[in-house]
């Protein structure tokens, strides 16, 4: 990867629910920020999203990398500067927790389980779903300040540890709930 680029990462299925088109719209607004968007994932909308990227004139700013094995994702996260998840709907998005655990600042839609991870403006940014303008605003804020990216990434990592948001703790909590019910 180019060392002189600010790497923005998207990881997810290329389906409507993941809202990648809103991030692409945002990328078309930050052309002068020396940013590169890496898209990891595949899905039904892959060709349509690639065509949309060309239509927006940002093909040189966006690289579709296809699917990656889960074991490879930490390497991509460590090579990136920001993760963006512009979903229209989520459960508890693993990729947000994984990125935060990696110390990566995250911009994500304020939907369903995402606020469980992110305290807006503290350890990441929450934006309304379907709002390219809000994504652009937060991206520009992070792209303009390496210090802010570092600070938010550090707080993101610390919050994952502090909140004990691990699969083991989640399973333990469910086990405790089931035991109380039984």
Plain-language structure description:
- There is one protein chain.
- This protein is an alpha/beta fold and 182 residues long.
- 43% of the residues lie in helices and 15% in strands.
- It contains seven helices and six strands.
- It has helices at 20-27, 46-56, 73-78, 94-101, 132-143, 146-163, 167-181, and strands at 6-11, 35-40, 62-66, 82-85, 106-109, 125-127.
- It has a six-stranded parallel sheet with strand order 3-2-1-4-5-6, with helices on both faces.
- β2, α2 (46-56) and β3 (62-66) form a beta-alpha-beta unit.
- α1 packs across α5 (132-143).
- The longest helix is centred in the C-terminal third of the chain and has 18 residues, at 146-163.
- The protein starts with 5 loop residues before the first strand and ends with a helix.
């Amino acid at each position: 990867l180019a060392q002189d680029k600010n790497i923005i990462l998207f990881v997810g299925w290329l389906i409507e629910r993941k809202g990648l088109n809103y991030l692409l719209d945002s990328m078309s607004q930050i052309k002068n920020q020396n940013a590169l968007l890496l898209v990891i994932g595949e899905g039904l909308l892959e060709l349509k999203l690639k065509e949309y990227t060309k239509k927006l004139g940002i093909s040189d700013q966006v690289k579709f990398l296809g699917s990656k094995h889960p074991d490879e994702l930490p390497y991509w996260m460590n090579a990136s500067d920001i993760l963006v998840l512009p979903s229209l709907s989520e459960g508890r998005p693993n990729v947000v927790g994984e990125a935060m655990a990696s110390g990566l600042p995250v911009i994500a839609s304020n939907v369903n389980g995402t606020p469980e991870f992110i305290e807006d403006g503290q350890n990441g940014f929450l934006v309304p779903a379907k709002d390219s303008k809000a994504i652009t605003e937060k991206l520009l804020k992070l792209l303009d300040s390496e210090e802010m990216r570092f600070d938010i990434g550090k707080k993101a990592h610390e919050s994952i540890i502090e909140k004990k948001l691990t699969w083991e703790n989640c399973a333990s909590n469910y086990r405790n709930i089931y035991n109380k019910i039984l």
